[in-house]
Structure formats: structure tokens, C-alpha cells
Amino acid sequence: MDPGAFYFRGRDSKEASISPPPPQRTGSSSSLHKAGHVIAHGHRSSFAENLRGLPPSPRNQRHPSFTQAAIQELLNHPPAPRQHNPRFAGRDWRDIAIGELVSKDDVSWVEMDTSVEDATMALLKNTSSNVVIIRENTATSVPVSTFDYNDLNAYILVVVGLAHPSEDLVELYDTIAKKAQTRVSVPIRDIQPIFRKESLVTLQGDEDLAKAIEVFGSGVHRILITNHNSEVIGILSQLKLIEFFWNEGVNFRVIDDLYPRILRDVGVGSQQIIAVNADSPLTEALNLMSQEGLSSVAVVDNALNVVGNISTTDVRHLTNATSLPLLQNSCMHFISVILTEQGVEKGKDSFPVFYVNPYSTLAHAVAKLVATHSHRMWIVESASPSPSTPGTPSLGPTVFVPTPSSSQTSLTGSHFPSVPPASTLPGSHLSGRLIGVVTLTDILNLFARSTGLNPSDPNEQRARRRRSSSSSIRPSIESSRVSLDIRR
User: Which of 265, 298, 416, 443 has its CA 20 to 30 A from that of 321?
Assistant: First the structure.
């Protein structure tokens, strides 16, 4: 099987080559060396080449990039909340109906027999919620599953022959890849077994936010909101709820009082971290996100300093056959390509704002999450803010560094930019040593507990996802000790 053959049958005889559009912000197992084969067959219609009217890249909804000066300015002056909505003034947030926060415009449907190509097109168009809902057929409005960028990432890994199926799924993976290679339409129904899905959670729109925050604080990322006829009327995500509390926090004393406190004191975040070395192949990051059910992973240099971030929405840049050689290159190389394609470097160093330190305030962390539409911020070591304050506690993460399985492959004559190896990256000056991560789940769990609610421990859901991972892919990090799993 040719792992570089990521092709589909077109809708007509014409082919359209879609290149990444300019950035627009809208106010949210085959061997690897065969992947080069795609260059020799670049004239065939690729996955992205059959997508018409491609919308702006979802990357622009998540990680806008900033210069070093802008990073320091944001550190000194976190962005202020947007204008408050007067209809929430004077109300107890626990009595606000979930339906007040959602819109039917966020709901996009596909059917079980919809092709992956058409489902991806619908996903790219739905930038407001970054998910499409799957139903059995057009005669019903009952949701049976969802399709998002985590699923697209898993599918791409299968098609290019870089996934790691269990024995009972090897035949299915091969069948899917062969269909894609011969440009046979693959329906969503056929690829359901390759997804690692959360339970589909629904709540009625007239239920209050107290119920929603308990669900989110327990580790669920998305809730479908329905009316009394079980029709989906909106989608509530963790990020949308965080944005609500950020904008309207001034109306809710218990929440607002948490914002000035520092992360170390409120006790949010986890010291169990999964990251990739900047020199690791991009496929390592993609497989980690797929296997672990993560939406992003940190990219670190050899001293464990955070130098970048890769998210599942970045697979948007891999749906064109000419971009598949990126799979052979490093994670840092991929990050530089994304920045270059967005036109944000222009001869100057430019990095996403993706980290905080233990002495950052909760307000600062939430402001960054909202501004970048991210699901997590990486916590890095930082000096004490003043001589009278005790130093940052030594977290002492246990680092697992596997031996590289193969040497890096460079693309001779490629138009992609060259990047320095991880050993020469100035990570200590850019951010700091990775010691933890704070997620939307952690913050919503804190909000819930602070207002007398009782969400379940989100670590239980994380542990369930990890137990479902293949033990051959990564070492166990299920123990309660601090651990930092770094892939090379």
C-alpha cells in the first residue's frame, strides 16, 4: 500500500487545487520513507483538492502568533474582558439556562453515509464549534456521534499508513487505506471504529448552568443542547463556557474573586504531561494526540523548554498531497511551516503565546485561553516574583526519553523553511522548562467546586482514555507520581 496516496473520487471531471488561504480572524503499517512517493504522483486529485470553497484555516481560531515584544506586553498587561452583557447582571449564574448560551447556527449535520471528504468540508466550514453532528439519515434529527479534528487526525494517520491499530482492526485499517488510495468514497459509517470517542452527552436547553459545569468539570469537552422534542438546538463547549465566565465574571462574585489568585495557590493543573521533542517526526505528535485523545501537545527543546505547540486543528495543513512530505520532518519544522504559510514571520521571530508560569494569575491564564481559543496552557518554571516570596517549588518531573527509531529525513529542494535542531533552540529565553499543564477542564472543575458543586475527578476520565491507549505506543504514566513523557 502507498502511504502517501491520500486521494478521493472527485465530484466532476475538474480538479481544484486548494492552497491554504491567507489568515483571517473571525472573532474559535507502512514505512515512513514511502511517504516521499506522493511527490512523484502529485498530479492526482488529493483529499483537499476536491474541497470547494475552502473557508479560512481553523488554525486562526486557536493560536494567533505574537512577537517577543507582544508576549512581554501580554505578560505585563493581560487583555481586559470584553463588554459585559447586561442581561446577566444581577443574576446567579447557577440559575442561567444553558440554552441562553448557545445558537442553532453552530449546529451542522452529516449522515452516517456521508463521505469523509464531505464531512471534512462541513467541518472546515463550521468554525464556530469545530464539530459536525452525525445522524443516521436525513429523516431523523437524533444525534448518534460527532466528527471533529481529532477524528480527522485519526483518519489521516490510517490513510497514510502511520496508525497503530490493534490486531482486531488491522484489516479494517488496510481496507480504508486501500479505498482512499484508489479514490473510492469512504463513508463516515465505515470509519467509526477508528475513533476514540467520548460519550455523547446531551442536556435540555432549559436546564441550568450548574448542571453543565459539573459535566465539564468532570472532563467532558462538549455537550449537545436539545429542546423538549430532542432536537439539537446548540452546542456548548468548555471553551464557550470559559468565555462566558471571563466576560461575565464581574457579575458573579465567587468566580470573580478567583481571578486575582495565582495558579500555584488555587491548585489547578496537572504535573502529568505528554510532550514531544522539537526534533521528533511530526507523526509522533499526531499519533500521541490520536492515542491519548488530546487536542494539542507541547513541543520542547532538549532542555525541556517549551518552544511550540501542535494541535489537532493543524491537520488542516496535511490534507493536500503536496504537504504530506511534512510527515517526514520534525515537529519544529511543521510549526515553522504553519507560521510561514500564515505570513506572520516576515523575517522576524514569531511564536504563539501558549504558556504561563506558577505565579501567573488565574485571570492571566484564562485571558490567554480565551484569546487563543486554546484548550490548554503549558506551565513553565519561573523565578519567584519577588525576593520575599519563596521560590518556585521543585516539581522534579520524571522524564522518559525513548531512543529515536530512525534518523531525520530532510526534503532536498523543498520550499519549506529550514529550522535549527532542538539542541540549538533558545527555549530558555522564550518560555521556560515545562513542569505542568492547565486545561479548561481544570479551571471549570475549580469554578464548580468553588460554588459548592461536586464534579467528579477529571483525572478518572483521563485515566480511562490512557487505559484505552495501546501500551506499545508509550510507557505507563498512570501512577500518581509526577511524570513527564517526552517523545523523540
Answer: 298
